[in-house]
Design brief:
about 230 residues, 10 strands, 10 helices, single chain
């Protein structure tokens, strides 16, 4: 049986680890998974590393498709991920019912952590839209690629962190206050595709179909993602 080489961003690491084990039990096909920062993953695919399956934010996959690095016809929507807000586990809870609640919390936080991935890009865009970038920029701390924002919260580097909920769930030393409030939501679609010239394209397409199937619905919900129908 083939062994599929798969690269993904950190946001889908837990999903893929658990799904790969079930996929192997069902098919006998193993998946060698590497999860890194999304920017790093996209660059490695662009540079020609021999992966079979690529799973990234939709916009990153679209760019790889335009560059001829993945098979566009195999692009498969897998899950929707919402950005959540977290503080240290000993910090007081805060309501996040409105965008104003989040703006006030960000204004009062000494340091704010965010990621290098699509959620971080969207957050900076939102802060600029609010006209708060100049005020908040000195206390914004971008986590290094592959480093969870939760780690910065837990070790006291930042007092407030925003990242994909799937990357915050279950992390020690933090308290998730909730998803971004209405009017400030940041949602990311994660999709997969077969790399152009993949060694095992049929098996890779089968793994993508499995990830988009009903068999993974409960797993996606458990890790804080929302299932999607194939694109």
């Amino acid at each position: 049986m083939a062994t599929l080489n798969c690269i993904s961003s950190m946001a889908t690491k837990r999903l893929l680890e658990e799904a790969a084990a079930d996929f192997r039990a069902q098919t006998g096909i193993s998946v060698a998974l590497e999860s890194v920062g999304g920017v790093v993953a996209a660059k490695r695919v662009s540079d020609g590393e021999p992966f079979d399956v690529v799973i990234l934010a939709q916009d990153a996959l679209d760019a790889l498709a335009a560059a001829g690095k993945i098979e566009p016809s195999t692009m498969t929507a897998i899950a929707l991920s919402q950005v959540a807000v977290a503080v240290a586990d000993a910090a007081p809870a805060h309501a996040l019912d409105r965008a104003d609640d989040l703006r006030a919390l960000m204004s009062s936080a000494p340091r704010i952590g965010y990621s290098t991935g699509p959620s971080g890009v969207a957050l900076i865009s939102l802060i600029r839209e609010w006209g708060m970038y100049d005020a908040l920029q000195p206390k914004l701390v971008q986590a290094p690629s592959g480093v969870p924002v939760a780690r910065l919260i837990a070790d006291g580097t930042v007092q407030l962190g925003l990242q994909q909920r799937s990357e915050l769930l279950g992390m020690p030393g933090i308290r998730i206050l909730g998803d971004m409030p209405p009017g400030a939501e940041i949602n990311t679609v994660f999709s997969g595709a077969v790399r152009m010239g993949a060694a095992a394209p049929n098996e890779a397409a089968g793994f993508l179909a499995y990830l988009a199937s009903d068999r993974t619905t409960a797993l996606k919900t458990k890790i804080g993602m929302t299932p999607l129908q194939p694109r």
